[in-house]
Structures
1.
Amino acid sequence: MEINIEKISELARLNLKPEEKHKLAQDLGAILEYVKKLDVLDTKDVEPTSHVLNMENVFRADEAKPTDAARKALQHAPETEGSFFKVPKVVQR
C-alpha cells in the first residue's frame, strides 16, 4: 500500500523533516498492516454498534427553576439601570 506522506502532512498541517516523513510512513504502514488483520474476521452475524456498552441518558430533566443569578450579577456592576448593566456608549453614528 502506497502512503502519500506529503498529502497527509499537508492535511494535518505538519512540517516534517525528511527523516520524520520516513519514520511516519513506516509507522502508518505498520498500523495499516495490523488493521488489515481484521479483514479475516467473520462479522456477518454481528450487529453494528457505536459503543460496546448500552448507553443511557443519565442527565436530569430540563426544568425551569426560579433563580436570582441576574440580581447577584448586577450587585457587582459599577452601574445599573433597572435590570441591566449600564456601560459607556461605544458605538457612534
2.
Amino acid sequence: MFAKRSRPLASTLLAAFCSFGLLAAAPALAAGKLPHVVILATGGTIAGTGASSTTTVGYTAAKVGVDGLIAAVPELQKVAHVTGEQPLQIASENITNADWLKLSKRVNEVLARPDVDGVVITHGTDTLEETAYFLDLTVHSDKPVVIVGAMRPSTAISADGPINLYNAVILAGSKEAVGKGVLVAMNDQINAGREVTKTNTSTADTFKTPELGMLGYMQDNAPHFYRLPLRKHTSQSPFDVSHMTSLPQVDIIYGYGNDNRIALDAFVKAGSKGIIYAGVGDGSISDALKPALQEARKQGVIIVRSSRVGNGIVARNGEANDDKLDYVVSDTLNPQKARILLMLALTKTHDTKKIQQMFYTY
C-alpha cells in the first residue's frame, strides 16, 4: 500500500506541512553557524503510514526511514544542520533491553563528537517514556537529548509528527536545553524524561507530567523554560552501560482486587532479580501476596513497592514495614520507570539501602 502512492511520500508530506503553516513559521536564517543536530530514528508512529489520509488508527508503524522524515520537513535546514541515522526501525512496543543499550551507546558516541550540538530521537509513543528515562540515566553528556514522537501517522490529514520534529530539532540545538537532561518535546510542550508519561491512548496531548507539571513550552521557534528537573541525570549519573551486553531481569506485577501470587512465583522461577510491585493505593499489599513477596526477598530478589495510581510519593514504611521486610520504595516513579532504575541499580549493587538512596536521587 505504501508503494502504490501516486507521488513520493516526502512530496505528499511537504504539501501537508505547508497547509498548516509550518514553512511560514520558520525563522529567517540567523547570522552565524547553525547548530549541528543528529536525528536518530527508531521507527514508531511518527514514521508510520496509513491506508488513507483519514487513517489515524490501524496504521503501520515504522515505515518511513530517517531520510524521508528529514526530507519531508525542509525547514529543518533553516534552524540546524541536520544529519540522520537509523539505529532501529520498530514499533516501540517491541523495544528490548538490548535496543536500549544499543541506543544509549550510540547517543553517547554521537554526543562525544565536538561537531555535534544535540541529538533528537524519533520514537514510538508506547514506550517513549521508558526510553527517555533510560537515556536520562545512561547518557553522560550535558548536550541536549530530545525524544519526539507522534500520535498520528505521517500520512494522516492532521499529522502531528512534522511540527513535533521541527520543535524537537530547535530544542536540541538550543543553549537553553543544555544540562537539563533528556527532554520530551511533543504538542508544543517540553517535559522531563524522568517524569513524563503517556496519559491517553490516542490524543495528541497525551504526554504529560501529572501534578509536577511540564518544564516549559515551544513557542515562536524557541524553547521557554519555567522550571527545572532537580533529580540527578545524564552527566551526574553513575550508570555506565558502555561495556554492557545485557541487563538484569526485572519484572512488574500488578496489584488488584482478589489478586494472587501466581505471576510473582512464575517470575521468580524464571530468574527475576528484581520485582516491581505496582500496588494499589500507596503500594498496599494484599494478604494473599504478602507471603510470596517475603519469600522472594529471602531468595535474594529485590522488591520495590510502586503504585498503579500514577501520582504521588510511595511512602517508605507506610503500607508495609519496609525496613523490617528489606523492601525498597519507588518514590514518585511509576512502575515502568521504577523497573528501568532497578535494572541499572542492580548492575552496581544488591544492597537495598544503597538502592533506596538511588530511588531518592535519580
3.
Amino acid sequence: MKPNVRPRDPRFSSGPCAKRPNWSLDNLKNASLGRSHRSAEGKARLAEVIDRSRAILHIPKDWRIGIVPASDTGAFEMAMWSLLGARGVDVFAWESFGAGWVQDIEKQLRIKDLRKFGAGYGEVPDFSKADPARDAVFTWNGTTSGARVADGDWIRDDREGLTLCDATSAVFAMDLPWTKLDVVTWSWQKMMGGEAAHGMLVLSPRAVERLQTYTPPWPLPKIFRMTSAGKLIEGIFKGETINTPSMLCVEDAIDGLKWAEKIGGLKALIARSEANLAAIADWVARTDWVDFLVADPKVRSCTSVCLKVVAPWFEKLSDDAKANVPKQMVKLLEKEGAAFDIDGYRDAPPGLRVWAGATVDKADLEALFPWLDWAAETVAKELAA
C-alpha cells in the first residue's frame, strides 16, 4: 500500500544538497547586499567563511584557505593548471568527476608523464600504487559512485610530490588527514547545502612553495593565477576574491557553518552522516529488492549513497528496460512529493542515489524507505501487467 507519511523534507539531491534543518530565508536578512565585496564589511564576511571553515574542519593554521570562482570545479581546475607539470602525475579515478580530471590532465594540460589508475563504479583503485615521488590527483569521495577513500595511510608523510584532493562530497562528513593533503577543494552547495557560485581551496605550505618556485609551461588565465612576481597573492586567502562573489551566497555559507558549530562541529557532522548511512544499511539488509552499489562497507560513502535494484524481476529485463526502472521510480516519488532528485548519475549503472550528509535528518530517510519499497513494487507490477 502507498505510505501515508512523507519525509518532512523530501530533498535528497546529491548537489545542491538539502539545506540545514529549519533553514529559512530570514537567516540571510543581514547579508551585505548592495555592498562591495571589497568593502571592510564585505571582506570581513568572506574572511568569516574562511575562519569558521578552518575551525570546524581543524585545518592546520599554516594551511592557506581561499575562496575562488566557479565552485569546486573552478577550485580544482585552478589547482591543477597552477601546480601540475613539475613532476610526473598519478591520477586515481573511479567515477565521472575523477574521469573528468583525467581528461583535463591528459587532453588539456597534455602532461606526458601520466599514470592512470582506475576502477569501476562501486569500487576504488589500488592506492598502494601511488609513487611518493610523483604528484597524486584523486577525489576523496566518488559522488557519482558512492565509493570513498577508506583512509590516508597510503599517502607517505615524506612524499616528494603533492597530493591534490577533490573533497567536495567528503569534507564536513569525513575526517580528512589534512597533513597528508597538499591541495583540498570543495564547494558550498555540497555537504552544507549552501548556494552555488564559489569554491574553497586549501593549500599546504608545500603547495605554496610549489606555486612560488614553479611556472607551468602553459598560459594561465587571470582567474587561475595565485601568484604575482613569484609571490603568493595573499589577499585570495584573506577574503579578497579574484572575482565578485554573491554576498547572499556568502551569508548562506556563514549560516551553514554557524549551524555546524551549534550542533557540535565536525564530530557531530560526521556522526549525523554515519548515522544516516547506518539507517540506510539497516533498511537494505531487510529489503530484498535493493542493495548497495558499493559492496565493500569500508569504502562505502556516508554522503552520496548509491543503490542498485537486485530483484529477480529486474534481472529478467533488457538493458534498456533496466535503465528505465529507476527513472520510473523517481517519477512516481516526485509526483507524490516523497523524494526529489534521487536518480543515479547519468554515467553510472542504473540505480538510485540518496544524499545522506549531515543536513539530512535520519527521520526523513526512515520516512523515505517505505516510499522506495512502494515505488519498486509499483513499477514491478506495471512491468508485469
